[in-house]
Structure formats: structure tokens, C-alpha cells
Amino acid sequence: MFKPVPLFVGLRYTRAKRRNHFISFISLISILGIALGVMALITVLSVMNGFEKELRERILGMASHAHVTSFDGKLYKWQDVRAQIEADPRVIGTAPQIEFEAMLNFGDKVSGALIRGIEPVEERQVSDVHEHMVAGSIDDLTPGEFGIVLGKELAIALNVDLGSKVTVVTPQANVTPAGFMPRFRRFTVVGVFSVGMYEYDRATAFMHIQDAGKLMRYGNAVGGIRLKLEDMFEAKAVSAALSQTLGPDYFVSDWTVQHENFFRAIKMEKRVMFFILLLIVTVAAFNIVSTLVMLVNDKRADIAIMRTLGMSPTQVMGVFIVQGMLIGTLGTLLGVVCGVALATNVDVIVPWLEQLFHTQFLAADVYYITELPSDLRIKDVAVVAVVSFMASILMTIYPAWQASRTSPAEALRYE
């Protein structure tokens, strides 16, 4: 024969109409179970990749790749420090800032906020807040005009709109004959932004860096210098190099340190979800054992005849391994196709389900992101497919080995 005997017989058994329809049913369940597990794994990994990517982009769109400041929180000769930073070719953008916490008041509404004093033109080099303006413009922050840009959720909480006068109360105090009085200043709302991340939309506001300096009495100093790097994943190396260049009087941090626990938790959660969902594939693969055990019992007479015709135990074992491999291959391929299709259309399917059931799966006040992102990676698909296929092969070994031990005399005694 032009084919190896185990492969030929195994494929012949696959095409043959089985006398026991229950075996065919269990085989179908095995294929569908493996396909379901593979599809779930690919989809969940893609969604978690999408969450990680989306969160990283949104966080770094508001924060910065790296940040340089002094240990007392003020940079007095910041222009010289900036020149040293920009000498590194890996740094593609810098911008000064003053950052502090304050209370915002409008009428009977009060809310805390993180205030950032920025230079609007230079801020474009290190963040993309200007791309997320829903009202007004970040360029409307002009020195001396005391304008302020609020996050969308913060504006809703204060019940303000463009042109509203908001009172900013700082943690510093003035000494007066009446005692210590908090320092405050009225600002005009000139813009509203929404980055789609509740943490920032609810608790962040921007003002011009000169206005922030006057309010916090910084004089000619700034709070720090924000950096944008050519490659965000080189942040650790760039931070280490700048620390050596600037000396011990300056503190350099990067996004991998500032948000280290957050992104580490996401990676850990991704690994845990992978192993949990892998159990679905494993349970489905266990059905292959029961399928092949029943098939071996159904084909005992055929095995005995093949053995008497000269087929070796290894070849008999190969016949049933082909059966298990076929089930695993069909289940894996079906799961990969369905998983890839589902992962690439999550952004369409989820809004349709939300509209159908009149609900929102990701509430803005609970989750960082209100939309379900997906980032399909070929590496994840390949790993899932290989693991699923290897699990299927592993489950065929025991029943195939039992088939190879069938005694021809015992099998044909009652035939």
C-alpha cells in the first residue's frame, strides 16, 4: 500500500459507518468541546491583550513615559535640566508641569481633583489630551486669564459648563489676623476633555503653568519635566541613563515604576485565566479517552484479525492514535477559526448584545474602560493551538496502548 498501514487503517475507520452510534456521538462531543475551549481561550486572551494595550495607551496618554523632578518637588533651573534631557536621542518630547491636589467648588458642589499646570503647546509633545477634548480647546489656557479644563465626569459632578466660574482651593494657607485662611482663586471653565477612563475623567483638571505657579507660589520654578520616549518599553534604560547624567540631586521615574503593580496584576490575571480556561480543553480532551476505549472494545475482533495478518502492536497502537489525532485536529481547527472570528469582531458583537439586552457590561463608574477592546496576537493563537493538539495526543496514548495489548486468541474466542 502507498500509505503507512496505521494511517490507512485509522483513516478507513474514520470514514466507516460505525455500528455503535454512541461512539460517534461521543466523538462529536469531544470535537465540539475542544473547539469551545480553544475558542474561549483565544477570545479571552485577545480581550485581555486589548485591555492591557488600551489601558497602557490611555494611562500614558495622560501621564508620561518618564518624569524628572528634584527631591523637594521643585526644579529651579529647569531649562538647563531640560537641555540635558533632550540631549538623549531616545527622548522625543519634553514639557514642564506643576502638579498639586486641590478642592474645586461651584455653588453647593465640592470635589477634589488633581490639578496639572501645563504649557498647552508643549503639552502636545508628551500627551494626547488635546485629542480628547469634547468642549473648548486646551489651547484656550492662556497665562493670566485663569482658565481651567476639567474632565468630563468632574464637570458633571460639579454641574458646570463652559464659562462657569469654579473656585480652586489649595492645601496651602495664608496667615491673616483672623488666623490661617486657605488660599483660593476663581477660574473660568474653558474646556472639557474625556479620555474614556473614569479615573482621569473624574479627578483631573488642567490650567496654564504660569497660573498654577502663581497659585502655588512656585516663582520661576516648575514641579518637574515630563518626557515622551521614542520607545516606551525603553523607559527603564532611559531613566537609568538620565539618573547618571543628572546626578543625585534629581529623581527620575518612569511609567513601569509608577504603574508597576497595575500592569503586573494584569499579566498575572492573564496567566491565571489561561490556565483556568485550559481546563476546558483538558476536560474535552478526556472525552477522547472514553471515545477510543469504546472504539477499541468495538473493534476487538478487527484488531485480532489484523494481528494475525502480521500487524505489530506498535502499528495497532498507531491506528488508534490516528483516531485521537483526527478528533484533536478537527476540534482545534474549528476552535481556532471560531476564536479568531469572535476575537476580531468583539467590538461589533458586544455593542449589539448591549443594545439587545438594554444593559451596559462595563459601567463607567466601576471599570477603567467602558468598551470591550480586543488585540488578537498570532503568538497566542499558535500557543493555544499547539497546547490543544498536544493534549489531544496525550489522551490517545492509554487507549491506543490498551488496543496494542489485545490478544488475538482471546478476542476471537467467541466470534
Approximately how much helix is present in the residues? 40-55%
Report how far the terminal alpha carbons are from each other.
28 Å
In the predicted model, the low-confidence regions spanning at least 5 consecutive residues are none
- How many domains is the backbone divided into? 2
Number of strands: 10
**Helix/strand structural class:** alpha+beta
Work out the radius of gyration. Answer: 33 Å
- Choose one word for the global shape: elongated
- Average pLDDT rating: 82
Strand order of the largest sheet: 2-3-8-5-7-6
Percent of residues in β-strands: 15-25%
Total count of helical runs of at least 4 residues: 15
Profile the largest sheet: 6 strands, mixed, barrel
Q: Helix-strand pattern, N to C?
A: HHEHEEHEEHEEHEHEHEHHHHHHH
Considering the chains and any ligands shown, give keywords for the structure.
415 residues, 55% helix, 2 domains, six-stranded mixed β-barrel, alpha+beta
Helix/strand layout:
Elements: H1 5-15, H2 21-62, E1 66-70, H3 78-86, E2 91-106, E3 109-118, H4 120-123, E4 133-136, E5 147-151, H5 152-158, E6 165-176, E7 179-193, H6 198-203, E8 204-208, H7 209-216, E9 224-229, H8 235-246, E10 250-254, H9 255-258, H10 260-298, H11 300-308, H12 313-344, H13 346-357, H14 378-404, H15 408-412
Parallel strand pairs: 3-8, 5-7
Antiparallel strand pairs: 1-9, 1-10, 2-3, 2-6, 2-9, 4-7, 5-8, 6-7
Helix pairs in contact: 1-12, 2-10, 2-12, 2-14, 10-12, 10-14, 12-14
